[in-house]
Amino acid sequence: MNIRQRTEEIEKLILSPYAVACIDSRGRDKSEDKCDIRTDFQRDRDRIIHSKAFRRLKHKTQVFISPEKDHYRTRLTHTLEVSQIARTIARALRLNEDLTEAIALGHDLGHTPFGHAGEAVLDSIHPSGFKHNEQSLRVVEILEDKRGLNLTWEVRDGILNHTGDNLPSTLEGMAVKFSDRIAYINHDIDDALRADILSTADIPEQCLEVLGSDHKSRINTMITDIIVESLDKPYVRMSEGVDEATKQLRDFMYDHVYIGSKAKVEEVKVQYIIRQLYEFFIANPEEISQDLRTKLPGEDIHRLTCDYIAGMTDRYALNKYKAIFLPTAWQI
């Protein structure tokens, strides 16, 4: 019995009956030899961490576009916070922590430059629309590496359904879905307070009463509530009171930070940049990355352009725009 097999045996002993043991996975689209050391979910996690798409997250916007100070969240730090929250929930509920971590680390791989501003403009101009969760799935299935990462079905399901109305098929995926919301609501409040866009007095009092008056308390309340509510149950959920307060806090953030605040004043500019880049690459497909054109020969030009722009970091998109549309100084 090798180390992987021992791990699979241990999973059967310690995991909740509602968890997904690796040995029960629906597997990969393309069969592979098993690793002697790592389970399939552990291999998925490692493939995501070592992917180029994961590394690019460090230069993609969470909420604040091109912040000058060092402590604002990026898409990468958001992903790490989601992963840590989800692992805490999974361990307490005896879910598969490796599956949970892989979903969390991969959930935003398809996010655009400039955060949801970039997503919104691509959704408006691409003929088939654009959703970052669908693009994340496309990244791991097609765009990353030579022929995709060939991840297990459960990880791909969790990535696709981490947001929106559809629910993941696993409790591990549900843990990530809640953790994503917990992470972005709380760290976006933290960043907004740091930027003087909000003060604690602005936050609805009823939310503070239920969830807590500071960053640490609110996160602890939400995580603890999920664990208490879901322990040894065939579901992952919040209690009605905490869920309602969390939704109210999210609505508050949309009204006061995500839409119309001074954190968003640059969005019109970056949406213009993405729109201009999109139109340029549609008209000049030879300017799209050679690697991407080689990988997807014969791909629809709108789909190819969307893939190229969605994969850009903030600074790469800005540099591309400058190189294409702004004149360079004459070198004498």
Structure commentary:
The chain is an all-alpha fold and 332 residues long. The protein has 16 helices and no strands. The chain has helices at residues 3-14, 40-49, 52-56, 75-92, 97-106, 115-125, 132-143, 153-160, 171-194, 205-211, 215-230, 240-258, 267-283, 290-295, 301-310, 314-325. α8 crosses α9 (171-194). The radius of gyration is 21 Å and the shape is flat.
Please provide a brief summary of the model.
The protein contains 16 helices and no strands. It has 332 residues and is mainly alpha-helical.
Give the arrangement of secondary structure elements.
Elements: H1 3-14, H2 40-49, H3 52-56, H4 75-92, H5 97-106, H6 115-125, H7 132-143, H8 153-160, H9 171-194, H10 205-211, H11 215-230, H12 240-258, H13 267-283, H14 290-295, H15 301-310, H16 314-325
Helix pairs in contact: 2-5, 4-5, 4-9, 4-11, 5-8, 5-9, 6-13, 7-8, 8-9, 9-11, 9-12, 10-12, 13-15, 13-16
SS class: mainly alpha
In terms of per-residue confidence, which ranges show pLDDT below 50 for 5 or more consecutive residues? none
Individual helix count = 16
CA(first)-CA(last) distance: 70 Å
List keywords for this structure.
flat; 332 residues
